[in-house]
Every structure is written in C-alpha cells, then in structure tokens.
C-alpha cells in the first residue's frame, strides 16, 4: 500500500511512471478495499478462534466435573459394600443371619463363613485412634 501511495504522489508531482506503475496506481482503490476486507476477515477469524477456545475450555471443565462425579459415585459404592461386609464380622449380625431373624435372611454357616472371610480380605481394619 505504501508503494502504491508513493506512485500516486509521484504521479501528482508530474513524474513519468512506467506502464506497470500506472496500472498499479489505477488499482489503488481496489487494493485498499481488498486490504480492508482482509483485515475484517482476520478480525472475524480471530473472534471465532477465541469463541472456539472458550467452548473447548468449557467442554473440558464439564468433562472433568463428570469424571469427578463418576469417581465419587464409585467410591461411594465401594464404601457402601465395605460397610455391609464389615457388618458380617460382628457377632450379633452373624447370629441374625444364622437364624434368619431381625429382618435378615437365613444364610447357611458355610455361606456366612465365605462372606466373613471375604470381608476380612477386602476391608482393612480401621484404626479408631485416627
């Protein structure tokens, strides 16, 4: 654009320009228009790029929250299962299941022993001092 402005100034001063320079001066308005269009296009692309980045960040945050919720749900389930299994190690609970009383179903001793052993293997001892 600067070169074209220089040609235009030289032409106004009466200097002789070659044919290529004269052709360039004739297309000055077209070049300026195209430059303005390119600048607007660049602004539009920049805005779209920023919008896309924001949308990606938002989607990543949403995905992270969903993963965190899924992990919490897994942990809750594990803790619930551990709680149930730990109850099988209590004497009064074992009596209820052996007799099928107090809302407990009847479990044969062999099956109850399996559950007790499984509970001891999968549920760590709790340190009450912590």
Task: Describe what you observe in this structure.
This protein has 130 residues and is mainly alpha-helical. It has a domain of 65 residues. The protein contains 5 helices and no strands. The longest helix is centred in the middle third of the chain and has 60 residues. The chain is rod-shaped and about 115 Å long.
Shape, principal axes of CA atoms: rod-shaped
Strand segment count: 0
Largest sheet: none
Radius of gyration: 40 Å
Terminal CA distance reads: 76 Å
Low-confidence segments, ≥5 residues, pLDDT <50? Answer: none
N-to-C order of helices and strands? HHHHH
Mean pLDDT: 88
Strand content: under 5%
Helical coverage, percent range: over 70%
Structural class: mainly alpha
Query: Total helix count?
Result: 5
Topology:
Layout (H helix, E strand, L loop, with lengths): L1 H11 L6 H8 L1 H60 L3 H9 L9 H14 L8
Helix pairs in contact: 1-2
GO molecular function: signaling receptor binding
Family: Belongs to the caprin family.
InterPro entries: Caprin, Caprin-1_dimer
